[in-house]
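Researcher: I'd like a candidate sequence for this fold, 494 residues long. If you have to choose between options at a position, lean toward the conservative one.
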């Protein structure tokens, strides 16, 4: 993963001058020791802040150490002015947390009162008007704070990635998928740049790579990755040419950005002009941390990138696609996997899911496109999909989206890919999400979300929630449990 930031986190202890500074230092050292024991990387800043001069000194230490994220640690009550001055001047992702009292003897004369100090810190943060991450339970012993620091890493990584991200697109957002035509103005407000290009630009660049000497090396890599799944080797030269085209374009056009995501036109004219389906190449770039959103889905690509930063691992983009047939439900799910027939569905896309997320990836052709573009013929221009059942296990289905009024909204739903043979085509899996039918009706339909959703492999909802809060998303929807009604849900429905 060379397309996501490396987080270097520093910890700075603070101390109100009427409290013992050595208490804050001792507690900071205990947190650092707990981090080292757990394998959590942290840079210990030696300056303990009592005033603004100390804050400036700590800033120099942070800069010298190359830190790009910060933990402000209230070892005691803490000076709310200098500590928030530090965070504001630092200007990069910052978490505030505080020390709990260790035992009864501490209460007699060395009590730190950081529980109280967190209140003043939060007030000062709001007065200064900058953003800081405060965990759900920000006060605890060294072991607890170590856990907070470990959880801050994926949040900081995503925030750092977004501030230096460019989304490159090819082709107009398709009329047949009007849902992908979300306003992009909110992205610029987040500091994310968008570079939209014509399909002709892409076609010209692709043709210029026709005799690229690197093509055989990419083909060999594809062959090694596909193994027995390499069922259509004749299409690999074009796919290798296309992969090099996208990688070179991204490198030449990212400009001031450090990281890139893409959202590209993929059908139907793509097949007739380029002569293949781009899905497998999209899967390979996504596996490297460069998500490629299908159907010029800019917010889908953005969601994928956020998921990549959070997990540090490949993600995918799927259609919330079709119901599970009754016979499949009865044979493989009912009474076995803990989901009702209203809590399961199938997530699908043509072939863009990385091979590491498939049980057995196979190079095939896109059945739906073949039906429309070259019926009654051997597959030719519709070759290039990577197909197979998605690996089972916990997932988080989510999407960040702008509505028609350019306001950001999002949803997050944790669930799992079930160990069920899909007996279908494409990159596909049977998904179980608690209370899915209600979520489908009162979030996905009611709030006008498109068919695409990003899938992160793991239970990462708590990180996504904090990231979306930081980004200023005011409506964060989730699959609400039974008994917790959605605003539009009919309370009399049985």
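Model: Candidate sequence:
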């Amino acid at each position: 993963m060379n397309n996501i930031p490396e987080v270097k986190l520093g910890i700075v202890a603070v101390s109100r001058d009427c409290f013992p500074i050595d208490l804050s230092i001792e507690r900071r050292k205990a947190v650092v020791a707990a981090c080292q024991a757990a394998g959590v990387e942290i840079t210990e800043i030696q300056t303990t802040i009592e005033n603004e001069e100390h804050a400036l000194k700590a800033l120099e230490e942070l800069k010298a150490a190359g830190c790009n994220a910060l933990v402000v640690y209230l070892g005691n009550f803490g000076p709310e002015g200098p500590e928030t001055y530090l965070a504001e001047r630092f200007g990069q992702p910052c978490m505030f947390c505080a020390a709990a009292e260790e035992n009864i003897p501490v209460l007699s004369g060395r009590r730190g009162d950081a529980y109280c100090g967190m209140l003043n810190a939060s007030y000062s943060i709001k007065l200064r008007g900058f953003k800081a991450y405060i965990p759900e339970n920000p006060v605890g012993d060294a072991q607890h704070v170590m856990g907070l620091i470990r959880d801050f890493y994926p949040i900081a990584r995503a925030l750092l990635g977004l501030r230096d991200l460019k989304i490159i697109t090819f082709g107009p957002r398709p009329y047949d998928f009007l849902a992908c035509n979300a306003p992009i103005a909110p992205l610029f407000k987040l500091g994310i740049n968008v570079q939209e290009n014509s399909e002709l630009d892409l076609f010209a660049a692709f043709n210029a790579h026709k005799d690229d000497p690197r093509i055989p090396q990419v083909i060999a890599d594809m062959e090694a990755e596909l193994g027995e799944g390499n069922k259509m080797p004749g299409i690999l030269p074009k796919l290798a040419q296309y992969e090099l085209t996208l990688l070179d374009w991204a490198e030449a056009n990212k400009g001031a950005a450090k990281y890139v995501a893409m959202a590209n036109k993929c059908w139907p004219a793509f097949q007739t002009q380029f002569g293949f389906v781009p899905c497998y190449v999209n899967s390979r770039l996504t596996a490297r941390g460069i998500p490629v959103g299908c159907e010029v889905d800019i917010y889908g690509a953005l969601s994928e990138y956020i998921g990549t930063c959070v997990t540090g691992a490949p993600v995918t983009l799927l259609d919330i696609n079709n119901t599970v047939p009754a016979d499949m439900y009865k044979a493989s799910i009912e009474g076995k996997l803990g989901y009702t027939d209203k809590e399961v569905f199938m997530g699908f896309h043509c072939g863009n899911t990385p091979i590491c997320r498939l049980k057995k990836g196979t190079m095939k052709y896109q059945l739906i496109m073949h039906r429309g573009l070259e019926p009654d013929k051997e597959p030719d221009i519709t070759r290039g999909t990577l197909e197979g059942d998605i690996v089972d296990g916990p997932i988080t289905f989510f999407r960040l989206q702008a509505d028609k009024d350019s306001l950001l909204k999002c949803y997050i739903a944790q669930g799992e890919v079930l160990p069920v043979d899909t007996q279908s085509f494409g990159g596909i899996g049977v998904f179980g999400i608690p209370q899915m039918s209600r979520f489908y009706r009162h979030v996905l339909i009611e709030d006008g979300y498109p068919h695409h959703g990003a899938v992160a492999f793991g239970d990462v909802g708590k990180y996504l929630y904090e990231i979306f809060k930081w980004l200023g998303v005011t409506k964060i929807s989730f699959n609400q449990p039974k008994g917790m009604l959605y605003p539009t849900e009919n309370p009399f429905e049985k």
